[in-house]
Automatic annotation (TrEMBL):
InterPro entries, sorted: BP-dependent_transpt_permease, MetI-like, MetI-like_sf, OppC_N
Organism: Paenacidovorax caeni
Top-rank taxon, per record: Bacteria
Occurrences of domain ABC transmembrane type-1 (ranges): 92-294
Lineage, opening ranks: Bacteria, Pseudomonadati, Pseudomonadota, Betaproteobacteria, Burkholderiales
Protein name (Swiss-Prot/TrEMBL): Peptide/nickel transport system permease protein
Record's subcellular location: Cell membrane
Amino acid sequence: MKNTLYRWFDGDVGHSLRASPLAIGAACVAAVCVFCALFAGWVAPHNPFDLATLELSDARLPPAWSPEGSAKYLLGTDDQGRDILSALIYGTRISLIVGLAGVALSLVIGVALGLLAGATGGWVDGLVMRVCDVVSSFPAILVALLIAGVARALYPDAPEGIAFGVLILAIAFAGSNGWVQYARTVRASTMVERGKEYVQAARVTGVPPARIMFRHILPNVTGPVTVLATIQVATAIITEATLSFLGVGAPPTSPSLGTLIRVGNDYLFSGEWWITVFPGIMLVLIALSVNLLGDWLRDALNPRLR
């Protein structure tokens, strides 16, 4: 494992990373966000969702550098007296988990369908592509709202686990921002790879079609999929924040960044700007760092751009 990491860091990709200060900065920001999200219980100064520790007398306090602020709450408090900094750390964890799970599910579905369509061709290819066209014709947020809204109407008292599962499904099937991009990308790459000599040789020697797809073709189409998945993480997090802002995302008892922005939006014009501005800045930082990493990875994995 150590030798593999050393070869990666000393290879073309590692050299590309070391030569790009922008990519290094984005990686550091993303690493800090992921670390704080994973170890929120130790990093956060308070537990913002422990009702026993909340004090309504501390509600809507400005940041600590303001004259009315308190050193106990660095970024101020919200309408319920919750520490904004702690709420950001816990909310980032929820947004990252939901976003990564949604991307993973859409990747599995899209790659499987793209491989099947590209390697099989014929009516299977036509059917998969027509389904992609139909799904892409609907706005991504509309599809996500439809899935989340129908699930909430059918199961209004569903537990938090079910609510998060529905949110992940909504992100994975969110129109052209979900599994469709993976299916089209993998299909195009598969159609190129299946005409190459190593695939023809495998067919001549009697290798089963399923093994050709997953053993020979799939490893050679992972480059574009990796880049697309990296960029899609930022899109998934923004979609989750949008759904939570509209009230059909994360449960109120476990708010994500979108829920925090929605709560603070009610107080934005009354002077309590910090309740919504800081969650918004955190959302922008996460999305921007992931997008910058995706752009760098695209250039690093494409020999023509080196």
